Amino acid sequence: MEDHIVRSFDGELGRLHDQVVRMGAMASHQFAEAIDALEQQDSTRAAAVGPGDDDIDALERAISEQAVRVLALRSPVAVDLRAVITALKMASTVERVGDYAASIARRSMVLNGLPPLPPVRPLLRMARLTQRLLDDALAAYATRDADKAHAVWACDKEIDDQYASLFRQLLTFMMEDPRTIAASSHLLFIAKHVERVGDLSTNIGEMAYYLVTGHPMNGQRPKGNFATGEE
Amino acid sequence: MEDHIVRSFDGELGRLHDQVVRMGAMASHQFAEAIDALEQQDSTRAAAVGPGDDDIDALERAISEQAVRVLALRSPVAVDLRAVITALKMASTVERVGDYAASIARRSMVLNGLPPLPPVRPLLRMARLTQRLLDDALAAYATRDADKAHAVWACDKEIDDQYASLFRQLLTFMMEDPRTIAASSHLLFIAKHVERVGDLSTNIGEMAYYLVTGHPMNGQRPKGNFATGEE
To answer: Is residue A4 pLDDT above 80, yes or no?
Structure first.
């Protein structure tokens, strides 16, 4: 009988884990779609990102309710308690990735109505790197891989550096051709959103590391110039 | 003996609540300092905001550890479980308010080195309104006042509208005088940070409401144009 209770608890924790993994895959897909829509100037594709974000928000609420239910009914301790708390924090972080993806998609639609467009190549490069970081962080959580989680942590500086360089480029571009100011402003925000997704990926890596090892990552994270502790 | 255990539990929950209230007061103070430093172009004052944010981050970690300890040792249910979960979520949200305050302060220091400065009056007006909303939301949590929490929820649209207007004004300003582009770009981000603090205040109001009533606020929140679900 006790064995049965334990197994059912494993099932609930497993379901919570699976829901978070699914939510992560949805947010990663949303981010990829938003960047593809930006690259291809495809407003139809961008318009599909918003409704997808509602699904992510709904899944976050479901995970939060499920976590509270497990806490109330099972009173987990030790590694199981850590798994529930991490699921709660993961859901909240992944939800913000989804919000940024939706915001990038919305701004890309505004951009499509605002020629002439400033160069987006360096932004796309930065976004692809961020996508890799996000996917690695989510994989580290899904497979409970502390080494992979730690690798994500060290990589965010490259994104911060690319962001700082892009910020300067966009300002120069605006000064040289003031007709691009509206479009460039939206690109500034998109670049910032991408940089924030990089930060959130690092946070996801930290959560995965804590989940597996039971203690926080040590040391100061390497950070770029403008991004220290930045929202 | 059981009475003693119950009272000690009340003490732990009370301490958790007090810590969140203190963290909220710190973040509110940081936000006020950042806005004052911006208004007075006072880089010394702005420079003091960053170290304060480290204290807020440390308090968030302490609250998170305390919450996990209460969950592990006391296995709270019903309203007590809700209080612990809300404390966790509050700490994470208030920490982001602190991050935005630090970012505003950092950017205000950059601004002080970048004349000529675009007009900041409408931004300051928006920031003062946001401060009131933030403080009302924190008070609703501190005093467990569902009516006050609900009032915050309805007020965020005004901030969103002011942000949308300010965004247009700043773009116009940049186009008319391209020498202000660098300064205006930082002001755009500051304005966005303030708008986000408004959103987070609404989230705090929602958490306070849920804590008191046990169910989420009903209905669709009134939102401004550009800010729907935006990060």
So the answer is: no
B97 vs B92: CA distance, rounded Å = 9
Query: Alpha-carbon distance B226 to B157, whole Å?
Result: 11
Nearest Cα to B198, choosing from B170, B226, B218, B217? Answer: B226
Distance between CA B111 and CA B68 in Å, rounded? 42
Nearest to B92 by CA among B119, B56, B120: B56
Alpha-carbon B35 to chain mean position: 13
Token pair listed for B182: 């660098």
Answer yes or no: are the C-beta atoms of A121 and A165 closer than 8 Å.
Answer: no
According to DSSP, residue B180 is labeled G
What residues of B are in contact with residue A225 (Cβ under 8 Å)? none
d(CA B37, CA B49): 9
- B49: nearest Cα among B65, B38, B58: B38
Task: Please list every residue in chain B whose beta carbon sits closer than 8 Å to the beta carbon of residue A196.
Answer: 231
Looking at this predicted complex, what is its ipTM?
0.90
CA A213 → CA A135, A141, A169, A189, B20, distances in Å? 20, 12, 41, 36, 27
Residue A219 main-chain phi, psi, to 5 deg: 85, 165
The token pair that represents A29 in the structure block? 């897909």
d(CA A86, CA B41): 41
Residue A167 half-sphere exposure toward CB, CA atoms < 13 A: 22
A145-158 pLDDT tens trace: 999 999 998 788 89
Span A120-141, mean pLDDT? 96
- Contact state of B174 with A181 under an 8 Å Cβ cutoff: yes
Phi, psi of B120 (to 5 degrees): -105, 0
Query: Is there a contact between B184 and B194 (Cβ–Cβ < 8 Å)?
Result: no
Q: Which of B81, B103, B229 sits opposite A68 (nearest CB)?
A: B81
Residue B197 has what pLDDT? 98
CA–CA separation, B193 and B18 (whole Å)? 27
| CB distance B214 to B79 below 8 Å | yes
- Token pair of A174 as six digits: 């605006």
Are the beta carbons of A181 and B189 separated by less than 8 Å?
no
